[in-house]
Each structure stands twice: as structure tokens, then as C-alpha cells.
Amino acid sequence: MGLNIIVCMKLVPDPEGPADSFEVDAENKRVVVHGLPPVANPYDENALEAAIRIKESAGGTDPVKITVLIMGKTMSKAVILKAVATGADRAVLIEDDQLDAQPLDSHTTATLLAAAVRGLEYDLILTGRQAADTNSGQVGCGIAQLLGIPAVTVARKVEIIDGTVRVERVLPGGYEVVEAPLPALVTVSHESGDLRYPALAAIKAAKQLPRDVVSLAELNGELASSGLVERVALAAPSRERACAVVAGETPGEAGRNLAQRMHADRVI
Amino acid sequence: MAVSERVIVFAELAEGGGLTKLTLELMGLGAGLASEPGGELEAVLLGEGIAAAAAELATLGARTVYVADHPSLSEYNPDTCMEVMEKLLREESAFTLLAGHTPTGQDLMPRLAFALEAGLVTDCVDIEPGSPGEGPVFVKPVFGGNALASQVVKTPQRMATVRARVGSAPGPAAGAGEVVALDAPAAEPLVKSLGRTTEDRGVKLEDCRVVVAGGRGMGGAEGFHALEELAALLGGAVGASRPPCDSGWIPSTAQVGITGTIVAPDIYFAVAISGSSQHLSGMSESGKIIAVNQDPEAYIFKVSDYGAVGDWKQVLPAFTEALRGYLDS
Ligand SMILES: Cc1cc2nc3c(=O)[nH]c(=O)nc-3n(C[C@H](O)[C@H](O)[C@H](O)COP(=O)(O)OP(=O)(O)OC[C@H]3O[C@@H](n4cnc5c(N)ncnc54)[C@H](O)[C@@H]3O)c2cc1C
Ligand SMILES: Nc1ncnc2c1ncn2[C@@H]1O[C@H](COP(=O)(O)O)[C@@H](O)[C@H]1O
Fold first, then answer.
1. Which of the residues A22, A136, A165, A207 has the least number of beta carbons within 10 Å of its own beta carbon?
2. What ipTM describes this predicted complex?
3. Where are the alpha helices (DSSP H) in B51-97?
4. What's the pTM?
5. Cβ separation of B306 and A267 shorter than 8 Å?
């Protein structure tokens, strides 16, 4: 029998990078990233960790197979290696130069990923709750809708119990336990836990694992030249302010002077 | 010729049963977008025992309020909610559907968008009327708030989720709209709830005039007691960046930012917070921002109005004490 889990992972410029590494190219409506390596979208790492925990709890009797599915123009060897070394059994990559011509909209992305998923075996699909570059949070539910399977969003815990997936969904101030029949899709949030570090031996072994590369043509995925949503402008946020840094001989005095200054300015 | 806008607001209820503040803001925003001649504003409300809230929507400028009132809708369930919404909207030719960027809005709208093949823009911080025929321009943060993208939706059915404070509650409308009952969902949902565990959130961060937020540099739960003292003095609430929530120093409902609560108080204190774009995206609209940080180069100083450099353990008690003196006198 066994259980097949697909984890969708996107490569994004390190979202924890400093603000000045993200330059807004207004003319081309693109963000130009300086000096930041591509990393796995953090929530997608959480999704992989959730898959690995399911694999571990299943034990040897009912083997779980994890496939990571990554679509993008440039791939990161480091990300793929880490995914395989921590617990993925297979990496399927959708690589194509066309993918970088335009930022794809959510509809196009989900359509291509759903087409790739159809060519694989799956019982459970995990995605991140949202990608750190699009900040969109649509692709997960989109894949589920296109495949016609149930979806649960913003998971902090994912378990397989008797052929159903049981999920703790994050709610403001708590959580909700929900259940859905397999196959199903779950979007994972950071509360579910960070991806473990791979063991050194596992990294070595992972280097041997073949990667399956799929081209857009194989997916019949003409890049829908026009998605449903079009970016018409891109601007840098205007966040910077003139800051009055209040000095003092000691930090305590700076604190007192700050109170005095704010009082004098009638802020307080 | 201007294409008249039909704007539909997906309304939500607060815990007490009334409409949420964000719903009122969406009604105001929707009224603005539908203000061209021929435009119209409508609302849809799902729940159980919601006649009073539906009647209120009808007085807020909605010409038609669609209501599905049924026990199976008492708590949000994606499948039952989708059934009702899809049935309502599938045959409609053109509209702009606005929902709050809330847990429900974030869960429902992508499903609905893909079911209808409609374009959706999530997490809008602004919606501009746009040019005739092209429909509204939806503005949203991308790259963690490091850029703002303006987007248009190319399908006639348009959808957006909107943050708090983008719109403002509408003034009184002339006359009341009509309330139209929708069919209750018939199908058994695939996704089943086995129960909720939630704590009362007490004061809501987004409603406070003063927020005193702490970051990773607070070092532990004790640090947050010092923030509570300052918050209490100013009648505000304590917030946080993400790391303190992840570490359990403070409940995760305190998280401010792109994936937490969006706040815009009169005064926002950022104590031992470095100023990541994800955090700024949730508080940069605040009236005055005050930073306390031991690193003079911390980015937070660039986006603040006032700052003090130093260890919060020394800065904050002295600040709080001096402030107490001013407030008492
Ligand atoms: C997809 C995604 C979504 C995210 N969403 C959010 C979100 O909604 N909200 C959010 O906040 N973050 C979010 N983050 C995390 C974000 O990127 C940052 O990691 C986080 O905001 C950093 O928190 P911080 O400023 O408290 O910590 P740090 O960046 O570690 O900064 C700590 C600061 O404290 C100062 N400090 C240390 N000790 C002291 C002391 N004794 N006295 C004074 N100052 C001191 C340091 O100088 C430093 O500036 C998100 C990240 C991702 C990838
Ligand atoms: N190019 C991609 N390759 C693989 N997975 C993706 C890709 N784009 C989006 N996803 C998945 O969809 C989730 C939500 O993305 P988004 O809707 O863009 O916020 C991500 O966290 C990923 O799990």
C-alpha cells in the first residue's frame, strides 16, 4: 500500500535578507534582488518537515514516500540536497527558461503544478501557507480545486489516521481540529515546526539520488501567456521617516530624555 | 464609457454576533468603488441566526443582502461555504467581490477564485478605482513588504481580500436594501471539524491606540512584563514580532506583521525589534513609531520618529518612570 506525499517547494530570495537587497525596478515592474541566495520558501520547509514526521510515525510497516516538486527557472542544488537529505525520496523539478520571463500569476502556477501532480502518485499534497515572494496564499487551494480534492489551510499539525488526514488549523487565539478524506491537500504554517538539519551521511547519500526533470512541454503547459491577474506597476514602499534619536550619557538617561522629548512634542 | 461596477462584500460576524469592523470598512470601500452611475453595492452573509446582522447590512448601503442562515453555517466550513458562494456567483457575469484578509477570507477566496476561474488579489492595502473597462487597481505587498505591486484582474469576475483600515465605515445610507434568502448547503462537507480550542483574546491589538511591542531582543517572557507595565500606563496593549511568539514568550495573537495582526495605533513602540520588512508591513502606518534598540544601525531607526539607543533593560524602566511623572503631574 504505502502513502505518497508530494511537497510543493518554491525557491525564493532569502526573505530574511535586509531591505536594501530588494531593489524595485519600476520600469520593468520587477524586484531585482542583490546578493541574496535563493532559499526554500520557509513555509515549504515546514511542509517538508510535516511530511517527514508522518513518514517517521508510520514506521516501516506502511512505507511513506515523499516527493518534492519544485518549479522555477533556476534551481538551487543546496535546497534540493537538503530536501533529499532530510527525508524526501525523490525530487521532481519543473525547469524552464520561460518560467522567469514574467512572474507567473497564481492561476498559471497552480495549473502547471496540478498538471505535474497528475503525472505522479499522491495521497497527500503539502504546500506552504504562502510564498515569501508573492505573499499570495492561493496556489495550495488552487491545486486542490483543480484536482477536485479537499483542502485544509494553515496547519500547525498534520497526521494520517486511518486513511484520513487530521489537521490542527491555526485560528486566532487557538486552533481547530479538522479531518478530510484522502487524497487531500494541506497548506502548512510555521507553527508546525522547522525543518530538521540533515545528517552528514545523508547529505552524501543524497548526492547520488537522481532528479527527475520535467519540462513545460511535457505538462502540456503552455505558459498561459496571460494569467488572470496582471501587474501594472511596482513601487517601493515609503516607510522611512526622519528619526529623532534622543541621546543620553547612559541608556537610562536616554530613556528619560526620550520621555521628556515626547512629552515636549505632545506625543504623550 | 465607464463600466458600472457591481461590488459584492463578503460580510463576517464578530464573536458577539455583530458585523466585524472590517466588514463595515469593506462596505465603505465598496460604496466608493460602486459610486459611478449604474454601480451597485451588495453584500452576502453566511451564518446561523443572523437576521439582525443582515438587516444592519441592508442599512449600510447594500441594495441587496444575500443571506444563508442555517445551522451548518454557524462556524466557517470551507465546503459548505463554497457550495453557497459558488451557487450564488457562478452565473453572475461581472462583479468585484471583496472579503477581509481574515482567516476565513484567506481560506475561502482562493478556492472560490479557482472554482470560478476568476482572478483574485489577496492582502490588498489599497484599491483604486482604475480606468474604465479595466476595473479597479489592487495594490498589495510582495517580497515581504519590500515592494508594492499594483494589479488588475482581467476576468470579469474579480476578487480581492482586503486588510483592515483600507476602507472606512460608510455613513448612513438612504433607505434600506432588500434581504434575499439563499438556499442552505445540501451536500455533506468533505472537510469536517472535530472541534475548536480558542482562548479569549481579550483586548484586540488592532483596536488599541497604543501598542508596546517587543522583539527577540527581549530575551524571554520576563522582558514582556516590563512592556506590560508601559502598556498599562498608556492604556495600550502588548504586541510582538514573530520570534517571541514562536518561542512562547507571549501568545501568538500578539504577533504584528504581514502574517500577524496589522495595526496602526497612534503610538507604536518597537522595543528590541530590528525592523524586518515582514514586521514593518504590519505596523508602518502607525502614527508615531518609537524605537528602542541597542544597535544604533538597526533598520528600525530608519522607519521611526523617535529613538533611544541602548539596552532596553536600562532604557525602558527610566523611560516608563519619567513618563509616569509627566502623566501624574
Ligand atoms: C514568510 C515570513 C513571514 C513573516 N511574518 C512575520 C510577521 O508577521 N511579523 C514579524 O514580526 N516577523 C515575521 N517574519 C519574521 C521576520 O522576517 C523577522 O525574522 C522577525 O521580524 C525578526 O524579529 P525581531 O526584530 O524581533 O528579531 P531580530 O531581527 O533578531 O532583532 C532583534 C533586535 O533586538 C535588538 N536587541 C537585542 N538585545 C537587545 C537589548 N538587550 N536591548 C535593546 N535591543 C536589543 C537587536 O539589536 C536587534 O535589532 C516573517 C518571516 C517570513 C519568512
Ligand atoms: N513555483 C513553485 N514551485 C513549487 N511550489 C510552489 C511554487 N509556487 C507556489 N508553490 C507552492 O504554493 C504555496 C503558496 O504559494 P503562493 O500562492 O504563491 O503564496 C507555496 O508555499 C508553495 O508550497
1. A207
2. 0.94
3. 51-58, 78-89
4. 0.95
5. yes
